Amino acid sequence: MAYDKSIPFSFLKDGVFYFERRIPRDVQHHYDTQKIAYSLRTRSAMVAASRARRAADQLDEYWYHLRIKDTALPGKHRLRIAARNQSHPPSKTLNETVNLSEAVGIYLRLKGKGRPATFKRAAERSCGYVIDICGDKDLQAYTKADANRFRDSLIERGLSGSSITRVFGTVRSVVNFGASELGVTMANPFGNVYFDRQADVKDRVPLPDDVLRKVQSECKRIDDDLRWLVALVSDTGLRLAEAAGLLREDIILDDQVPRIVVRGHPWRRLKTPTSAREVPLVGASFWVAKRILAQTDASPFAFPRYNKSEETNSNSASAALNKWMKPMVPERCSMHSFRHSMRDRLRAVECPSDIVDQIGGWQTEGVGQTYGRGYPLSVKANWLRRIV
């Protein structure tokens, strides 16, 4: 890591410039860190200087607003006196007022319990974008013009239609929840904002059968923990995070149906309630399970490499494994393609869709699907054997 004094608030790492700035003490209580650092996504010193200066200016402006917010309003006591002297109550009392940043805090405090860290990050990031563009206003002060300006800024950032949809969905939820908690009835300006939801959206592509077999063959040839993770996902359809966060005790081989127990852990929560399931081990996944349990190290984790902190580092796993697979797989294929392939492979043997959903942990529509315990392991195992 090298610092270049000619480019303010930045450092160079592996040829890429990064922005870095310490948070002033007087506004540090608004943050959960002491500094802000992120990639400027450029190797050009000229571009890095421009982006770093722009980011520094935006922070200075935002910190100014935070300081003003934390400072008592001159003459505020006179406003209280004036309110008491009115013959009728003010149209908007103090408990009916909340800024967007405060609404995020309420939202996370009440709805964020037991949710993964990504839930908090999505709320803070999405609403942070709004604050950057439109300011940290009272919820009822935002207008349709603000929402449209926010949309335009996301498009200028180069976000795809699906990413913009997710950001707007989070902002709408925070605003609706904040207004509901305060008992305020309002039209959410971030609802019904038009944009092309299909812009730059790339379909996820399943792996062709011959490519899938080639990848599995390479996994067995190299035979290390990275390739075990790929092979495990390939014949179970597990999400990468589900597989990376497994304990060794989640792998059961000494039973009539060898299987993996997918359950929530403090270091890796499940995406949905239906994600909790048992998946039979067949083909490459059965081979991996035996290789993992044959290891004599002391770690309780199936993949210790990605569980060295309080949270499973599935992003690191995704980056490393996608990089390794890239020369072998078609364009737009990735680790997530194994889940798409699993559905197609089960369709090819005419597996009923509700069994497919139980194997992959997908949500099945209909009230009746919530009754009972689902299909026995032996039934799921029979269908999985057909595809290997």
TrEMBL record:
Keywords: DNA recombination, DNA-binding. It holds the Pfam family DUF6538. Residues 202-384 form the Tyr recombinase domain. It comes from the Bacteria. InterPro entries: DNA_brk_join_enz (IPR011010), DUF6538 (IPR046668), Integrase-like_cat_sf (IPR013762), Integrase_catalytic (IPR002104), Integrase_recombinase_N (IPR010998). This is Tyrosine-type recombinase/integrase. It comes from Albidovulum sediminicola. The lineage of its organism: Bacteria, Pseudomonadati, Pseudomonadota, Alphaproteobacteria, Rhodobacterales.
